[in-house]
Amino acid sequence: MNIWGKVLAFLVVIAAIFASIFSAKLVQVRNSWTRKSITSKNKFDELKPKIETVESQIRALNSELFLAREFWGAFLADVQTAVKNPADGSVEVNIGSDKGLQDHLLMHGFEIAEDGTSTYRGSFLPIKIENDRALMKPNWRATSAEVKTWKPGNWRWRNQLPPGYAENFDKQLTAILKLEETRDDRLRTLEGQKKLRADADRKLKQREAELIGGEELPKSESIAPEFRDGLVAAMAQVEEERNQTLLNLDKLRRQVRSVQGDIERLLQENQDLADRLPKPETSRDVTQAK
Fold first, then answer.
1. Helix or strand run (H / E) with residue 127
2. Domain 72-161 maps to which CATH number in 2.60.40, 2.40.30, 2.40.160, 3.30.450?
3. CA of residue 223 relative to chain centroid, distance
4. I need a labelling partner for 242 at 20 to 30 A (CA). Which of 46, 104, 177, 219 fits?
5. Could you give phi then psi for residue 139, rounded to 5 degrees?
6. Are 139 and 88 a contacting pair, CB within 8 Å?
7. Distance between CA atoms of 6 and 3, rounded to whole angstroms?
């Protein structure tokens, strides 16, 4: 074998050694990638339900975002709002025709608290519009007690509400109106009962005065005592007069009895005296004497 054959044989041996080494490395890398593939597949299988849940939430949020943009309409934020007249609930806002405010454009006001939460205050109609300000009045009957809860500040105004939101507000407003009507009916009933009570108290005092006397009775001397001093006082007076009459009657009876006794005693004395007198002679006695 010549020198080139030996060199080639040596190179083949070296190549075979390197090939075996690289084959072992390749097997290790393949096994590593196989394990990673299996691990990734298992993780994907585990995360697949979560991914579907997140995708469902994303679709729901997109729907809500669409509904919010579609049904809530345009809005104006950080609008300075203050109550102008507490009697009717009219408010003054620093937006006007420059912000597209128009007559008969129904606007919905949301009061914004310091923590960012909002409170729906109802729908309003512009009654006076200027370039940079306007006066708006509630589109319902706002009570003074409700208006007192409105705080001035930066409100959010919208020109549209979702149907369900407005319907819920209308139901609550109807319930409030019914409660107010019930309250007014009960107040009227209470006022009627108070009048009846006052009339009954007046009549009671009149009847008490007629019984025991009082300032309600006239004081004229020309009327009977029972109508001037009361029935009880008149009866007491009559009773006193009756008792006095009975005492006088008893006294008279005693006097009569005493006089009667004196008369009987005098009659008896007269009879005794008469018996003591000499008796006159009868005609028979005179005949015998002859």
1. strand 118-129
2. 2.40.30
3. 54
4. 219
5. -90, 25
6. no
7. 5
